Amino acid sequence: MLNRYGTRCTAILGSATSSIVSGSIGRVDELSAAPAKPLQDLSNAKTNIVAPLSVTPGTTCKHTTEIEVTGIVGQPMKFEESKKSECKLVAAADIKTFFVFDIKDGAKTYDSMTKGKSFEALAGVGDKAAVDPATGTVVAVKNNRTYFGTFSDKQKSIALAQKIVPRL
Predict the structure, then answer these.
(1) Average per-residue pLDDT for the chain
(2) Do 72 and 150 share a domain, yes or no?
(3) What is the pLDDT of residues 84-119, one digit of tens each?
(4) Which of 102, 132, 138, 153 could form a disulfide with 161 if both were Cys (CB 3.0 to 4.6 A apart)?
(5) Number of domains in the chain
(6) What percent of the chain has pLDDT over 70?
(7) Within a domain: residue 44?
(8) How far apart are CA 41 and CA 67, in angstroms?
């Protein structure tokens, strides 16, 4: 077959090849290809960047996503199985690196966790908040619900609380 420039060409286009050879199609650019199927289902990519969600995270996990925690922590994090209300995310590369948090109704949890302990007041997180500088635990109250979460790095623990607490 000759192209429009007079040079010989060979077209290998799957099922369309026989149509080209038989001359039933005038130009190659008139062919319409079927849409390619994706190599991987990415419909849930916003929340599952490490692996498909194959565990049942705690009910509290609805307040964050794996991608959000990964962005703050700086390494891939994934939900861990939980039958409790708490939410636990573990680093994909090191199970000793984890973030765990829970949310309880009322402010009693805040009072009992911070009373007589080394917590420091924390501004800008909920109605009232405090952080334990030794453990990185943040406790905050918003809309009469108490958030408490722990990550080993105090600044990252505060950043995680700043994302989650406004959703209470």
Answers:
(1) 77
(2) yes
(3) 789 999 999 988 999 999 999 999 999 999 998 899
(4) 138
(5) 2
(6) 66
(7) no
(8) 17
| 118 to 2, 16, 45, 136, 160: CA distances (angstroms) | 84, 74, 40, 11, 20
Q: Looking at the structure, do residues 14 and 71 belong to the same domain, yes or no?
A: no
Q: Mark whether 90 and 161 lie in a shared domain.
A: yes
pTM to 2 decimal places? 0.66
Question: Which helix (H) or strand (E) covers residue 154, if one does?
Answer: helix 154-164
Residue 96, SS3 per DSSP:
coil
SS3 167: helix
**Which residues does 113 contact at the CB level (< 8 Å), separation at least 6?**
119, 137, 139, 148
Q: Are residues 130 and 66 in the same domain?
A: yes
In the block, residue with structure tokens 């369309």: 16
Q: How far is CA 23 from the centre of its chain?
A: 52
The pLDDT of 46-53, averaged and rounded, is 47
Token pair for residue 163?
């994302």
Q: Are residues 158 and 75 in the same domain?
A: yes
* Structural domain span for residue 3: 1-34
| Higher pLDDT among residues 133 and 35, named by residue | 133
CA–CA distance from 6 to each of 9, 11, 31, 100 (Å)? 9, 15, 20, 69
DSSP string, 51-81: S---S---GGGGG--HHHHHHHHSS-EEE--
